[in-house]
Request: fold
Amino acid sequence: MGWFRITERPKLWLDRRFLPRRHLRRPDGRDWDGFVQVNPPGKEKALAFLYNPLQEETSRRIRIPLHYAGLAGKARISVNGGAATEVELDKTDTATLTVKIPACSRTRLLVAD
Reply:
């Protein structure tokens, strides 16, 4: 399964001009990897993908920088298309949340204001 099949509306994100991807952690193949793309003028402000190469499910505390997404104070984050939860942003406009990533799989986070 490719990265593009994980989104419900891949064309929506692929057709727009984004700021460059920002890796959330240096990829090393020994723990999770992820990146975030932003879309400040849109209703959906950011899209993050997390990948777990391990053979077991992992739960990690992830920091997602949202400064360039045009968000401040709080954000609503939906995990894999589920119900959105409101998350407070710190003084650097970064959201911190705990995410479960299935074994050898991906998790998608959609961020809105």
Remarks:
- Strands lie at 22-23, 33-38, 44-52, 58-65, 74-79, 85-88, 94-101, 105-112.
- Confidence is low (pLDDT under 50) at residues 1-6.
